[in-house]
Amino acid sequence: MSIDKIRDLKSAKVIPGDMEVGKYVYTLGLAGEKFFNGLKNGKILASTCKKCGITYLPPKAYCEECHGAIDEYSEVGKIGMVYSYTIQYVDGSGKKLDEGVIWALIKYEGVRGGIVHKLGEVDYDQLYIGMLVEPVFKKKAEREGKITDILYFRPIKP
Amino acid sequence: MDKNVKLPGTPYSSDDFKKGKIPYVEDVPKARYTWSAGIAMSRFLEELKNGRIIARKCHECGRVYVPPRMFCSYCFRPTDEWVYVKDTGRVNTAVVSYIGADRGKLGEPLVVAVIELDGASEGMGILHKLGNVDPEDVKNRKVFNMRVKAVWKKPEEREGAITDILYFEPIE
Amino acid sequence: MRMNIHFKNRVACIGAGLTLFRRRLFETPRELAWEAAKQALENAGMELKDIDCVVFGSAPDAFDGIHMQGEYMVDGAGGYKKPFTRVYVGGGTGVFSVIAGWWHVASGLCDKVLVVAEEKMSPALPHPQYVFHHIFDPITDKPLGVNLIWIFALEMHRYMYKYNIKKEDIALVSVKNKRNALDHPAAQLGAKITVEDVLNSEVLVWPVQRLDISPVSDGAGALILTSEEYAKQYTDTPVWIDGVGWNLDTTYWTNRDLAFPKYLYYAGKMAYKMAGIHNPRKEIDVAEVYDPFDYKELHHMEGLQLARKGEAPILTREGVTERDGDLPINPSGGLLGVGNPIAAAGIMKVAEIFWQLRKEAGKRQVAKDPTTGLAQAWGDLMQIGTVVVMRV
Ligand SMILES: [Zn+2]
Ligand SMILES: [Zn+2]
Question: What is the pTM of this model?
Answer without folding.
Answer: 0.95
